[in-house]
Write a structure and sequence with these properties.
By secondary structure, the protein is an alpha/beta fold. The chain is 49% helix and 13% strand.
Length: 503
């Protein structure tokens, strides 16, 4: 609940209301607690309080429960009982302006990014690549940039990988070794990602993060991401949210500390962000979390245990709400002790014991004061939401989608000329040149063959003529000789006969 002095009434303890100071809301926060302890309702209370103040929010909806923030809540016996306790006489139930998004485009406006926007580092995490394969992917992006080839969707990246692999010798000197095995591994990972439906995320029109920072009638818009299907691929979910956060950091201008943040980003199931994540990327996340505050963006991690957040990042989360934890194993007991030590102790109770005793809707709360110092931890009850608790119907969802200002902006994708089209055109041109050269070579060989055949025939004719001339000369000689011989023989015989007669 937003108050006139720019504070947010979030919880109530024995000492009275607990307020989150507006200008400290961008100092980030943590909502933690075991399953069923009330984290989702706490998130909803915070989000609708921000909305009332004109601060838009982004949140992932794991089970559809947060869609109810779009509808007005209603009085119940539980709320009626809590109203006097919280000092609320007449709660004004109301829904918040809401826009639904869905990476798969089924339960909200599609959210897309180009492969280039995602970048090699986040893409390598998404594909679970090793260090060598990540290096090859970096080379592919570098070559694409230098050649002015746009990497928009999956087919662009696949063909670019194929192009680099086929011309690896050309690039090895300038960029390093490009092994066929690494390229093959990346191609297989892309096929797996595509089979899981992630290819729908890559394309155009790419999402403009400024569309998250919108208000309607003075209230901040609640940007709700349908994540029930997205959660089936935890890597895609966490990498996608990290990309959104990186885009906000990259695109928003520096604004310093504002009276109220420009956007609150709720990162649910935060443990997925850091699981199997390299130290280099964790360091990058830490840097983004630290610096995005100056862009007017507050990041609130929602997770089952504070232990899920790396220490370097947890130290930046100034506003903390911790619901009950369970400690059945030595590891869980250690996590409880560690969580208790992150709070500024309250002499009225034992923090570690209180963590194990909290009921549903109760929490240990510590916000930053106006000077940025953490307040003493208080055991408190979280306020009830003024919007509906629980999911809305499919009909209600579709009505909200159609009435959204963004309806039609992202719903239809398009495919402009990018790396795929350029490389295919080059390949086709190369094939035409090769075919033309082959045809010219064939014609040349055919001509040579004909010339050789003609030359052969000429030689054979010449040889035949020579043989004929020789034969005729021989025959003439023989005939002449035979004639002379015959004539002489005839004369000799004639003389012999005549000689015999007259003799």
């Amino acid at each position: 609940m937003f108050t006139e002095d720019r504070q947010f009434y979030i919880a109530h303890c024995d000492n009275g209301p607990l307020y989150l100071v507006g200008k400290m809301a961008n100092r980030h926060g943590l909502i933690a607690g075991a399953t069923g302890t009330g984290k989702t309702v706490t998130l909803q209370v915070l989000a609708e309080s921000f909305s009332q103040a004109g601060v838009p929010c982004f949140m992932a909806d794991m089970k559809g429960d947060l869609s109810g923030i779009s509808q007005a809540g209603r009085m119940s016996g539980f709320i009626e009982k809590r109203c006097p306790e919280f000092g609320i006489e007449n709660p004004q139930f109301q829904g918040m302006p809401t826009r639904f998004f869905d990476v798969f485009g089924e339960q909200g406006h599609p959210l897309r990014a180009t492969v280039s926007d995602m970048g090699p580092q986040l893409l390598a995490r998404l594909l679970a690549l090793n260090e060598t394969q990540t290096g090859v992917l970096n080379i592919v992006f570098k070559i694409a940039d230098e050649r002015g080839l746009l990497l928009i969707d999956m087919k662009d990246l696949r063909l670019m990988l194929d192009y680099v692999a086929k011309n690896a010798k050309e690039f090895t000197t300038g960029y390093g070794n490009i092994s066929a095995a690494s390229v093959g591994a990346i191609q297989r990972a892309l096929l797996t990602l595509e089979a899981e439906g992630a290819d729908q995320f890559f394309g155009e029109p790419a999402f403009n993060v400024y569309d998250f920072i919108q208000t309607e009638q003075g209230r901040g818009v609640m940007n709700v991401l349908a994540a029930d299907k997205l959660m089936l691929n935890p890597k895609l979910y966490s990498t996608f949210l990290l990309w959104l956060l990186s885009e906000l950091y990259t695109q928003l201008p520096e604004v310093g500390d504002l009276e109220l943040p420009k956007l609150i980003f709720f990162f649910d199931e935060a443990h997925m962000l850091f699981k199997d994540t390299s130290k280099a990327l964790v360091d990058k996340i830490e840097q983004v979390i630290r610096l995005v505050r100056s862009k007017g963006v507050g990041v609130y991690f929602v997770t089952q245990s504070p232990d899920d957040i790396p220490e370097a990042i947890a130290g930046q989360l100034g506003n903390r709400i911790l619901h009950g934890l369970r400690a059945y194993t030595p590891k869980e007991q250690k996590a409880v002790r560690a969580a208790a030590q992150t709070f500024r102790a309250n002499p009225s109770f034992n923090t570690e014991s209180a963590i194990l005793e909290l009921g549903t809707g109760e929490a240990l709360v510590s916000f930053l004061d106006e000077k940025g110092a953490p307040c003493v931890v208080e055991r408190a009850k979280i306020l009830f939401p003024l919007s509906q608790i629980g999911a809305i119907s499919d009909e209600q969802r579709q009505t909200i989608i159609r009435q959204s200002r963004l309806y039609g902006t992202y719903d239809k994708s398009f495919d402009r000329e990018s790396a795929y089209e350029v490389l295919v055109a080059e390949q086709q041109e190369a094939e035409k040149r090769a075919q033309k050269e082959a045809e010219e070579e064939a014609k040349r060989k055919e001509k040579e063959a004909k010339e050789k055949e003609k030359e052969k025939k000429e030689k054979e004719k010449s040889k035949s003529r020579k043989k004929s001339t020789t034969r005729k000369a021989v025959e003439k000689t023989i005939n002449t000789t035979a004639t002379t011989f015959g004539r002489q023989l005839g004369k000799s015989i004639f003389r012999s006969i005549l000689g015999g007669i007259f003799k």
